[in-house]
Amino acid sequence: MLIAEIFHSLQGEGELTGVPSVFIRTSGCNLRCAWCDTPYASWKPEGQPRTLDEIVAEVERHPAEHVVLTGGEPMIAPAIRELAAELKMLGYHLTVETAATVAPEGIACDLASLSPKLLNSAPDRAAHPEWHKRHEATRWQPDVVRAWVDHYAYQFKFVVTAPTDLEEIEGMLQKLDREIPRHKVLLMPEARTLATMRDRAPWLVELCKARGFRYAHRLHIELWGNRRGV
Ligand code: SF4
Q: Is the whole-model pTM more than 0.70?
């Protein structure tokens, strides 16, 4: 399994913000978001091949009770289901961070952190014509999202770049045809720097107040900025 990094930190986003956790970042993604903050796991996938035993041993070196499977897109990593099953058997709480473009098919998971991508994520058509087409054909798959929502505890995390994104989010939620509690829908300002996050926070906070969504600050950017391994 190609692993970009394994590190011990605090969860930076979502319902478990602040919880000490070990992050396993697989390398490789089936999308190419224009603003991807982990290009070393998507646009230019880096990493070391690691066996399941090596990964589990690395996790066990840390005192955390929570593990986050992230990427890239962890759901396309070969043996991800075996890894999740092993970690679950060892008693870890497992969060799977996914863009929800790959069906869960029974993967062990305590919290599905679903981050379907909006139109704002599309890579530049002129610079990346092939990836633009693949990205747009892949990023939103309501049937796959429903398969997660119907079988797992979940949260949604949407990356927002402009107030106009809100209509797209409302449309996607409606299309799911499920009762999605508004507090399970977290809206995060797209930001790789503290300055951008703080710039976008005020209008996003107001939109969350008006529509009942949950505002999601990004603790890791607040604490460490845009750095790897934190
Ligand atoms: S889905 Fe995530 S890892 Fe993949 S390109 Fe988009 S932001 Fe990057």
A: yes
Q: Is 148 helix (H, G, I), strand (E, B) or coil?
A: helix
Q: How many C-beta neighbours within 10 Å does residue 214 have?
A: 18
Dist. CA 121–CA 163, nearest whole Å: 15
Residue nearest to atom 6 of ligand 1 (CA): 33
Give me ligand 1 centre to Cα 107, in Å.
20
Q: Which of 27, 29, 119, 141 to mutate to test the pocket of ligand 1 (most atoms within 8 A of CB)?
A: 29
* pLDDT tens string 129-178: 999 999 999 999 999 999 999 999 999 999 999 999 999 999 999 999 99
Burial of 142 from C-beta contacts in 10 A (0-12 / 13-18 / 19+) = middle
Q: Write the single-letter amino acid at 76.
A: I
Asked whether 155 and 186 are in contact (CB, 8 A), the reply is yes
